[in-house]
Specification:
two-stranded parallel ribbon, nine-stranded mixed sheet, 12 helices, Lambda Exonuclease, Chain A, 304 residues
Length: 304
């Protein structure tokens, strides 16, 4: 499968086989052995995380309110016991949140609805659009649809070079799903904690969770998949405890860093695929933590 799909359900998107998403690439970048166990061997069961479910409720309320209770359910009790087990069984496939978690979600929903800037973007796009693209990794480069990936995005190559990459390279299908796809931008809702107007805090979250990888991957895959130029990735952070929201556009450097991350993850996956996922043990050197280095400064050494 390749191309743009605007009517694909979330369940169908996430369960589509033999494809790689931004969350999978993040895991590959972090630890390729865990990636292998999780996505290739499928030894890990799907992670249950109430924060994910609150985020799903928030997303559905803003982007597809008519489908909210098709995708989500609110449980009024405590997550244990027979009643909880019965409620889960009656709502299989749905994101389940508690009443207290709904309060958190409602704080974010209200903040986004009251933001003129967020609403201006939401009014100019289509929600939950998916895109699938085949990429080829050959001689250390990434190719797709007659183009090669550079530090600044896709560039056309000679047809012979692309044919060579298709013939001799390793092929992966990448998938992305935009919260909202505009004419030349992608809009992404982020549920979080803390003050969304604190740009230092937000920048740290983008780094810690590799949101820059997602931003670059989404711009690159939607651009090559539609033969259009998606220029801007808009983060819309909403706080579940402070109750505010702030929109940010990813800078060129954020996108360049994210592009380096996702391309590195792809190359790491291919390298290990080609070696049949054989991992060789290595003896590593462990360095002291930063705060322990005070013991190396003579003036601070304490005699025991």
């Amino acid at each position: 499968m390749e191309g743009l799909i605007s009517d694909m359900s979330s369940e169908a998107y996430h369960s589509f086989p033999n494809t790689f998403s931004s969350s999978q690439l993040k895991d590959a970048l972090k630890n390729i052995r865990i990636f292998h166990k999780k996505y290739i061997l499928k030894e890990y069961e799907k992670e249950e995380n109430s924060a994910f479910d609150v985020g799903t409720f928030f997303h559905s309320s803003i982007l597809e309110p008519d489908k909210l209770f098709d995708d989500c359910a609110v449980y009024e009790g405590i997550r244990r016991g027979k009643e909880w087990t019965a409620f889960k069984e009656a709502n299989i496939g749905k994101a389940i949140i508690t009443k207290s978690e709904q309060v958190q979600a409602d704080l974010m929903i209200s903040a986004v609805k009251e933001s003129e800037l967020a609403q201006s973007f939401l009014a100019k796009g289509v929600p939950e659009v998916s895109c699938f693209v085949k990429v080829y990794v050959y001689a250390g480069d990434i190719y797709a649809k007659g183009c090669i990936l550079t530090n600044d995005g896709w560039e056309r190559v000679y047809s012979g070079d692309f044919t060579l990459a298709m013939k001799n390279g390793s092929c992966l299908t990448l998938k992305v799903r935009a919260d909202l796809l505009g004419e030349d931008f992608i809009f992404d809702l982020k549920s979080t904690t803390g003050d969304c107007c604190d740009d230092f805090l937000v920048s740290s979250k983008i780094s810690n969770y590799s949101y820059d990888l997602s931003a670059a991957l989404y711009l690159d895959i939607f651009s090559i998949g539609t033969d259009k130029n998606y220029k801007d990735f808009i983060f819309c952070f909403a706080s579940k405890d402070v109750g505010n929201t702030q929109c940010y556009v990813a800078s060129k450097d954020n996108i360049r860093i994210g592009r380096k991350k996702w391309s590195s993850a792809i190359k790491t996956i291919v390298k290990n695929m080609e070696s049949d996922w054989v991992f060789k043990e290595k003896l590593l050197v462990i360095e002291p933590s930063y705060y322990e280095r005070k013991w190396l400064i003579d003036s601070e050494i304490v005699e025991l």
